[in-house]
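Exam revision sheet. Question 4 asks you to relate a sequence to its structure. Input first:
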Amino acid sequence: MVSSPITTPHFHSRVLALLSSSLSESEALSNNATGSSSRSLNSQPLVIPPLSPVDTSLTPDESMSQTIGVSSTWTDLCSPDPFIAAVSEDILKLEIAYAAFCGITYVLVPGPRLRRSSMHDGSLARYARAIIEALNAGPFIQLQIWMPMIDHPGNTVQQIGDLAPFARPDLVDDEAEAQPRKLDLIGTWAVWDFIRSVCKYHTRLCVG
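Answer key, structure tokens:
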């Protein structure tokens, strides 16, 4: 078996450009209406265009059955900002649908970005619902949630171009996130158990 990202850096750049443009327009409209510099909570949905040949290196082929697809690791399905979470979900569904079209049967999906407030602010539930939508988008694909064995605070590193920093500041609990985190030996297990229970122990869902 060989693993391969489903989309290319070109797709990543295109999404970042669309997201930046959408947030700038939303902020400008908010400034005109209220004179405030905060982003509007009623941001218009961001439409992610279909994949073009430069957005993916995968094509339908017999070898695809031996390929493990890897969905984008720069998305944030567990974002406290519903707008960023929705964009991330649309990207995941687009990638899963294309992987299914190519004949891929196994896809690795990055696990949720573990935050102190994830269990309480609904962001983890949004992640689980996004996984359900992804399972529906690829009816023959086995999804593996890619998670660390232990929730170690020092292992959380943001990539360049992550969607997480785009979350609106007023929706992020900075005080809770600023507090030092301790090593949680069963935190990852609790998160996985929550996800699989929301997904009703789906037979095509497992942990990786």
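Marking note for examiners. The radius of gyration is 18 Å.
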